[in-house]
Every structure is written in C-alpha cells, then in structure tokens.
Design a protein that fits this description.
Chain lengths: 115, 109
C-alpha cells in the first residue's frame, strides 16, 4: 500500500530534550516536506527536500533541522524543543513538481506537546 | 512572499452548492491546489489548477484566474461527509508550498 508513515504519532516531552520525528514514504517520491499545523494558521511549511541531500527552508524553519540521506526518509529533528513548538506535525511527499504532478501525500500526523 | 486568503467558515445544507474563494499574492506563482481535511485526519489532495479555467472532478470543481490572482473550489450536491476543512495552497517557483488558513465547511441536514 502506498503510504507516508510518521513516528511517533503522539509525543509529550520537556523543554530542551532533543527529539526526532521520523517520516518514511514507499512511493519513490523525490519531493518531501514537513509542515506544522496550528489552530487558525493552517499548515505552514517547515522544510522541504527536492531529492537526496537537497533540503531547503520553508516559512518557519527556526528551531528545526532535517536531513535527507535516503530518498524514502526525511526525519525532523528538534535539537532543543520549546513550548512554542507544541503543534501537530505532518510529513508529506510527492513526485517532483516540475514533472507536473502536484498531489502531495500526507502522513497521519504527529501531535507533539512540549512542557 | 506568498499569502493566501480564504474565508474561515461556511455553513450550508445537504444538497446545496458551496463556493470557497481563495485569493493569493505570490511571486513566481505556479498553480493552485486544494486539499480536504477531516477533523483528526490528514489533508488529502482534491485538485490542482495551473491554467485559467475550470477543472471538474465529480461533485467538486476548481477554478483559477491568474489575471485576478483568484481561485475557488466548488462543492456541489453537498453531503454530510463533506463537512471538513478545505485549504488552498500554491507552489511558487522555489517549490515552497504555502497554504491558506483553511475554510471550515459545516453541512447541516
């Protein structure tokens, strides 16, 4: 089954404790992206990647890191989480936009609470 | 920069037609996408318009006017299962994707 998986689905952590949210897709997509969703603000892009070893900042990259060492995986790293990073996080993937295919497939989401 | 504006909420009855407007201000605009998100779920892709005009997919249609920096999603023959949030999103030249704030559609019997 074609899908995007994220782990963990739910996480409660404390300020300053490094954490990683994993994202994996099995559709051989070039483009992968991370979003955070907060009430009233829609989805805001954190980072995106056009292919392996090619990452770029979205609209809200501060406090986050990403890496793309393999095509299927795109982990999101919070080196020192703070309470303002409490949010619902989505990973998404698609074929390269320049191929004319724009459908993004979203993972199920990770609800993060930082106390 | 990029910004997209859409109404925050729309209420309609089953069987009705709802139009969700989206205006954008985007440098290097490529096209406009629409996504549906049910409460507790992930966004799912509905449509994409790169050229002016209407794209029809079943009960849902999407329209784009590049000269007016405007698009809309048309939901016809509304059903209860259409109660959800709907987001417009644009993809700029740098491949950044920006979403509007979302429109919550409430369908009443």
């Amino acid at each position: 089954e074609a899908q995007v998986t994220q782990n963990p689905r739910y996480l409660i952590t404390v300020t300053g404790k490094k954490l990683t949210v994993t994202c994996s897709q099995n559709m051989n997509h070039e483009y992968m992206s991370w979003y955070r969703q907060d009430p009233g603000l829609g989805l805001r892009q954190i980072y995106y990647s056009m292919n392996v070893e090619a990452t770029d900042k979205g609209d809200v990259p501060e406090g986050y890191k990403v890496s793309r060492k393999e095509k299927r995986n795109f982990p999101l790293i919070l080196e020192s989480p703070s309470p303002n990073q409490t949010s619902l996080y989505f990973c998404a993937s698609s074929f390269h936009p320049l191929q004319g295919v724009h459908e993004q497939y979203f993972g199920p989401g990770t609800r993060l609470t930082v106390t | 920069g990029q910004s997209l504006e859409q109404p925050s909420e729309v209420t309609a009855v089953e069987g009705a037609i709802v139009q969700i407007n989206c205006t954008y201000q985007t440098s290097g605009f490529y096209g406009l996408s629409w996504y549906q998100q049910h409460d507790g779920g992930a966004p799912t892709f509905l449509s994409y318009n790169a050229l002016d005009g209407l794209e029809e997919t079943g009960r849902f249609s999407s329209f784009l006017s590049r000269s007016d920096s405007y698009g809309y999603l048309l939901l016809q023959e509304l059903q209860m299962k259409d109660s959800a949030s709907y987001f417009c999103a644009d993809q700029a030249a740098g491949n950044k994707l920006t979403f509007g704030g979302g429109t919550r559609v409430l369908v009443k019997p």
